[in-house]
Amino acid sequence: MPGPGDRGRRQGGYALIVIDMINTYDHEDAELLVPSARRVVPVVAHLIGRARAADVPVIYANDNFGLWRSHHGELVETALARSHAELVEPIRPDDDSLFVVKARHSVFHETPMSYLLWQLEVGNVVLCGQVTEQCVLYSALDAHIRHLSVTVPRDAVASIHPHLEAAALEMMERNMGARIVTAGEVDFTAP
Fold it and tell me: Which pLDDT does position 74 carry in this prediction?
């Protein structure tokens, strides 16, 4: 049976991967992250809406808050019960959304993401979410080494340290061939 390493199957479709936006903001860098998250949530919400309208899979890849019994419904409920629910509500998963729980920075590290993308015939990933200089950067690298085309809308990613965000975006573009665009420039139908 063919699998993710099978190069005989052409994969050209898109997926929108929403990274760590289901968040309790109860961590040490939250005070620095929240203002940036506030700016990107409306952009991410609009991008999710456009992906859904184009019938593009929306995949949430999220930390599990250290609760290893967690499933996505519990993670969403936990985040909505905390003090920054207004950052979660506009981008919450719908019934058609896919969800991958991750434990480390990359959405690919020891998760079924590669297999899921292969099953969906995805060759192009659009990464949005947080944190640009951590999880988005490492996910972009792992997507690149899996021969996936990567697009990162700069206005749909949140950071803790703006100077590191700028460096991360430059690294993704130069070293990984990522397209760094605005959310408005993302075309889910382009080849």
Answer: 83
Please, are residues 116 and 98 in contact by the beta-carbon 8 Å criterion?
yes
Residue 121 near residue 89 (C-beta atoms within 8 A): no
The whole-angstrom separation of Cα 169 and Cα 171 is 5
> How large is the greatest C-alpha to C-alpha distance in the chain, in angstroms?
48
Q: For residue 183, give the 3-state DSSP assignment.
A: helix
Whether 186 shows a pLDDT value over 60: the answer reads yes
4-47 pLDDT, tens digit per residue, is: 444 433 468 999 999 999 998 988 899 999 999 999 999 999 99
Residue by residue, DSSP assigns 41-105 as HHHHHHHHHHHHHTT--EEEEEE-TT-TT--HHHHHHHHHTSTTGGGTGGG---TT-EEEEESSS
Bridge partners (DSSP) of residue 181 are: 153
